[in-house]
Design goal:
By secondary structure, the chain is of the alpha+beta class. The protein has a single domain, classed as Alpha-Beta Plaits, CATH 3.30.70.100. The chain is built from 4 helices and 4 strands; from the N terminus they run αβαββααβ. Helix 2 packs antiparallel against helix 4. It starts with 8 loop residues before the first helix and ends in an 11-residue tail after the last strand.
Length: 132
C-alpha cells in the first residue's frame, strides 16, 4: 500500500536527531534539508494533495539525490501543509527544481497555494524505521 501523506508531523521532526551513518549524502556528509510551510486554498485542497503526492512519488522514484519528501497536514487545520525535504546535497536540490515533475507540480499548484515559507534547517539527527 502506498504511503499516505497524512501522518503526525511530530514523528517527522523526531527523525531530526543524529545522522552520521547515512552514506547517500554528499561527500562532505551534509545533506541539504528544508521545510516548506504551505497554506492551501480550502476549495482546492483535494487537488493540491493529489498534486503533491504525484510530485513526491516521481521525485523519489526518478531522482537519486532526493532522499526524502514527506508531505503532511495539520490535523486541526488541513489547509496547513508541511513538506519535509532531504536532498543529498545543494546540487541535488538545484537539479530537482529543474525537473519536469517539479515544474509540473509548481505550475499545477501555483493558484492553490495562498502562502509558502521555505526554511533551510540543519539536521541534528535523521533516523527512521519507516518502510513502505
Amino acid at each position: 500500500m502506498r504511503m499516505r501523506f497524512v501522518c503526525c508531523f511530530s514523528s517527522l521532526l523526531g527523525a531530526l536527531l543524529i545522522c552520521s551513518s547515512c552514506s547517500l549524502f554528499a561527500q562532505d556528509g551534509k545533506p541539504y534539508v528544508r521545510i516548506a510551510k504551505i497554506v492551501v486554498d480550502s476549495a482546492q485542497l483535494k487537488e493540491y494533495n493529489a498534486a503533491l503526492k504525484e510530485h513526491a512519488e516521481a521525485a523519489i522514484k526518478k531522482e537519486p539525490g532526493v532522499l526524502t519528501l514527506y508531505g503532511v497536514y495539520d490535523k486541526e487545520k488541513p489547509t496547513h501543509v508541511t513538506v519535509f525535504e532531504i536532498y543529498a546535497s545543494v546540487a541535488a536540490y538545484q537539479s530537482h527544481i529543474k525537473t519536469e515533475h517539479f515544474l509540473k507540480y509548481k505550475s499545477t499548484v501555483q493558484h492553490m497555494v495562498t502562502s509558502l515559507v521555505l526554511t533551510d534547517v540543519v539536521p541534528i539527527a535523521l533516523e527512521s524505521k519507516y518502510e513502505k
